[in-house]
Amino acid sequence: MIDTQSLSILREIERTGSLTAAADRLHMTQSAVSHAMRRFEERYGVTLWEREGRGIRLTQAGDYLASLANRLLPQLAHAETVLEDFAGGGRGALRIGMECHPCEQWLMRVITPYLAAWPRVDLNVSTAFQFGGLSALLGHEIDLLVTPDPLSRPALSYHPVFDYELVLAVRADHPLASKPHVEPEDLDAETLITYPVERERLDVFTQFLVPAGRIPRRHRTVETSDLMLQLVAAGRGVSAMPDWLVKEYAGDTPLRPVRIGREGIAKSIHIGLRRNDAGTDYIKGFLKLAETAPV
Question: Are 56 and 18 in contact (CB under 8 A)?
């Protein structure tokens, strides 16, 4: 089998471009690194790198193994952490990925009681997997995925935790604020503010504007919910947001929620997990709290 030392060496060579720097980072001598990789090349009959001036360039075989190392070594490191947690009574580690920009406040209402109820679980929340969480969940980089767009896979299951309606947030004195609902053409002259997601994953486009063949005058993206709602309150545009979030801000800012289309756009937040993990106690504990947490 391919040993992890060889993968670690290749990963560091790819990162540093230098055999000496790779050896230093791994606390090995340069001759030990050279010997280990020469033995690997002889065993598999491949060349992993070539000299290029003072640096090193990986061959196709080297690139492939370096890519493999970047995927496998973090998972093996995480496995060691989990085993240490079990051995030390830490119970386990729970990694949560977020594909829902406005869900952070809701998630904190789940995490606070969870940390108290499960003191031996190491919990981490990451937004690094936004809009790519499915592959992270299938690749064991995270254990739970909070998402408004569950994608069915045989190895995964999803638990709905709460329903909401996607509404158009407008300034209270905006002409659209007095309408019972907006039509697609109502956004023709508007600046539409959304999260930085491709249009194919934005419901206001896929379920409302695109079927009607309409586009807003301008489409602007913003990273945070707070800034987005502040821009709407300042009259800089309109935004499609969860109804609960608009209602939270409406008390302190001049915001109004308006239904999108006559029937509205109904959505649900789901928590996805691998089916094999469904029986884990601390995961079941998190799901139970999530199902009862207030929005």
Answer: yes
